[in-house]
Specification:
- It is built from 24 helices and 15 strands.
- By secondary structure, it is an alpha/beta fold.
- The strands form 3 sheets. A 5-stranded antiparallel beta sheet has the order 1-5-2-3-4, with helices on both faces. The protein has a 5-stranded parallel beta sheet with strand order 7-8-9-6-10.
- Helix 22 links the parallel strand 12 and strand 13 (609-611).
- Helix 10 (242-274) runs antiparallel to helix 14, helix 11 (277-313) runs antiparallel to helix 14 and helix 23 crosses helix 24 (673-682).
- The longest helix is centred in the middle third of the chain and has 49 residues, at 354-402.
Length: 693
């Protein structure tokens, strides 16, 4: 584990560059100081007084050599010269005020790294400036037409005051909700409804506007308002008292919502107990019949019991007196035995005493009474369920009648409540806040500024948000809702190559393989994205999009054979009866072509061989996935480019997914796609097929 001594300066530099990437024209105008083109190209400030003034704040300065296209960081010497720091040498491209494609910029820096990569000690300002121009040329050659005749210098210490990473929210219980949200799972709808509900609640309680932030990647950070989330209907008429209108509509909405919920709950309860609505009537008929049978049986036993008691009363006095004589006692008990044999032929009573006979009869009576009472209770419960469902339904329909809603379909009523009535409440809340801010313009002014304190932070695509952006947001948030999933091939960091250089400089990774391992492991949250940061050691709390209800089984064949072709053929031969239901998935087209050619000469020529990264296939009952990679291959792997790749594989399997390959590459503790698959494979040890090759 890395200590704070190396991690803290890494975070500091990362936050600094993060803030420079968010640089605005206003900040440039406020903090920037012009220098000549000659001073910029030579890398030396000639104004002695300005150099001294800059050094008072700190020796790290930001230089904008062109028209705000990029920022270059340098170390300012006492004589005014620029000394380049290797881990800060790559250009930073502000998001605002630039039409450059950030992804293309990052790709260029990865594909064509600067000339000083292998010899960082020899880097010069001229090389740094020249490389920044090369990057800009690769994306937009026309940028030179808008070049300034001067450059700008900004003191970083004033622009970016010392910001310490504050991610203490991660250690607080119940402060972060992690939602694993798949594609097209309604993240925006969820966030919009959540924000609007908060504003409605604040209006109902007459409290200040909620300081919620719905943060969308690459958008300016701002407070989310009911006005931006809900389409305002300006033509809607309201009375003079906006709060009274809101309360009236809100009460109607809550009444309808509760009645619909009650009806849905009892309908679900009946469906769970009786399979369907018709099942309860069949159950009632059955219980009525069972009650009759139980009562007949009880009456019959009561009659027998009275006969039994009568027989005891008819015993002569002399028989009772002489009962101590064994012969007389045996004769009397024999009569009782015959009585039980005639009425209860399955009951054995040999050598029973009179006390045992009496206990036996009492037990039979008790059982029949309990059976009758149990059936009667079940009948009462079923009738009560039906009566309760009818009562709640009638209340809901009565409420509909009072609101002039002409339908008796519970699903239609639910849509009317959750959509139409909720929109009316939201419109009334909008009207309330209009009037509210007319007299409290200072609060509206606060909401229009950069958020300094956040009650609830909603992050919609957290896989795109860098951990450094996340740390800034978490530091000012009281509660966080994070939606997203692990997707390392997005644009997760403020600049891929910048982060790479910082990681190496501060000793968090010594080589490329270590860098990738950290990226996927999310170790100390120093790499990756916000989803990585908040999900360290935690599984997702909620899933917006329900997975298929059909559960498939997972198993694996562990082998170190390169390509696993022979192992796959062995499995097919051992399971030839299943071959018609099998599809094979590979990671590489060359491997898939080779395997398909080998299968052509066998009985398995009909089996399709597909690439896992291709999106759409016909479903098969059994999928054989050949990951190809071994522990010796550095990540990232093809199937780690996004969770949707593994999701496609699972979606195209209806019964069983079998992985044939080196299982050491699958680590359940990771949050990557392979880590998610590993949780299915390696945590089912009793169900897997494991063979050594």
């Amino acid at each position: 584990m890395h200590d704070e001594a190396s991690l803290y300066p890494y975070w500091q530099c990362g936050l600094q560059q993060q803030m420079l990437q968010a640089l605005s024209a206003t900040q440039v105008q406020q903090y920037g100081r012009r220098i000549s083109r000659t001073e910029c190209e030579e890398g030396k400030l000639n104004q002695r007084d300005y150099v001294d003034a800059l050094l008072v704040s700190g020796n790290i300065i930001a230089v904008l050599p062109y028209n705000m296209c990029c920022v270059l960081l340098v170390n300012l010497q006492s004589d005014g010269t620029f000394t380049v720091l290797s881990h800060l040498a790559l250009p930073i491209f502000p998001r605002q005020g630039s039409e450059l494609d950030s992804e293309s910029l990052e790709n260029f820096m990865v594909i064509e790294p600067p000339m000083w990569t292998d010899s960082a000690a020899s880097i010069t300002w001229e090389q740094q400036l020249s490389y920044a121009a090369r990057v800009l040329d690769s994306v937009d050659p026309a940028w030179r037409d808008k070049i300034w005749d001067h450059a700008l210098v900004l003191p970083v210490a004033e622009l970016c005051p010392a910001v310490k990473m504050d991610i203490t929210l991660l250690q607080q219980n119940n402060k972060i909700t992690i939602i694993e949200a798949k594609r097209n799972s309604g993240k925006s709808t969820y966030a919009r409804r959540y924000v609007v509900d908060a504003w409605i609640d604040a209006a109902i309680r007459c409290i200040a506007a909620p300081k919620y932030v719905w943060y969308e990647y690459a958008q300016p950070l701002r407070y989310a308002t009911i006005f931006s989330c809900y389409a305002v209907n300006e033509s809607q008429q309201h009375s003079g008292d906006a709060h009274a209108d809101l309360m009236r509509l809100y009460n109607i909405y809550t009444q309808g919502k509760q009645t619909v919920k009650n009806w849905k709950d009892i309908a679900s309860k009946i469906k769970a107990k009786y399979a369907d609505k018709g099942g309860i009537y069949a159950r009632l008929n059955q219980l009525h019949s069972n009650v009759k049978d139980a009562r007949v049986q009880l009456r019959h036993l009561q009659v027998l019991h009275s006969i039994w008691l009568r027989q005891l009363e008819l015993l002569s006095k002399w028989n009772k007196v002489l009962d101590f004589i064994p012969w007389f006692q045996t004769r009397r008990l024999q009569r009782l035995h015959l009585f039980f044999k005639q009425n209860f032929p399955e009951q054995g009573t040999a050598n029973y005493s009179q006390i045992q006979f009496e206990q036996l009869f009492e037990e039979k009576l008790r059982r029949v009474e309990n059976s009758e009472r149990f059936v009667a209770d079940a009948l009462h419960q079923a009738e009560s369920d039906l009566q309760q469902e009818n009562l709640i339904r009638d209340k809901c329909l009565h409420w509909c009648l009072s609101q002039s809603i002409a339908t008796s379909n519970i699903d239609e009523i639910q849509v009317i409540v959750t959509e139409t009535l909720w929109q009316q409440v939201a419109a009334a809340a909008v009207n309330y806040w209009h009037e509210y801010f007319m007299t409290r313009s200072e609060e509206l002014h606060i909401l229009n500024n950069q958020p300094q304190a956040i009650d609830v932070l909603i992050v919609e695509h957290s896989e795109y948000v860098s951990p450094m952006q996340a740390a800034q947001l978490l530091a000012i948030s009281k509660r966080v809702i994070v939606m997203g999933n692990y997707n390392p091939m997005c644009v997760p960091r403020f600049a891929v190559q910048n982060d790479y250089e910082l990681t190496k400089h501060f000793g968090l990774a010594a080589c490329d393989a270590d860098f990738e391992d950290l990226q996927f492991d999310g170790k100390l949250a120093s790499l990756g994205n916000m989803w990585n940061l908040v999900s360290q050691g935690n599984e997702a709390d909620e899933v917006l999009q329900n997975c298929s209800t059909t559960e498939i089984s997972y198993s694996y064949v562990d082998t170190v054979e390169p390509g696993a072709i022979n192992t796959t053929l062995d499995w097919l031969r051992a399971n030839s009866e299943l071959a018609k239901h099998v599809a094979i998935y590979s990671c590489f087209s060359a491997h898939a072509t080779k395997l398909q050619a080998i299968l052509q000469s066998t009985q398995f020529a009909h089996i399709p061989v597909r690439l896992i990264q291709e999106p759409c296939f016909d479903k098969n009952a059994i999928s054989l996935f050949l990951p190809i990679y071994t522990l010796g291959d550095p990540g990232p792997y093809v199937f780690d480019r996004g969770s949707e790749i593994i999701d496609n594989l699972i979606a195209n399997t209806t019964q069983r997914l079998i992985v044939i390959g080196d299982m050491r590459i699958f680590k359940p503790e990771l949050h990557s796609a392979s880590g998610q698959l590993a949780k299915h494979l390696l945590l089912q040890e009793k169900e897997v097929d494991c063979v050594g090759v």
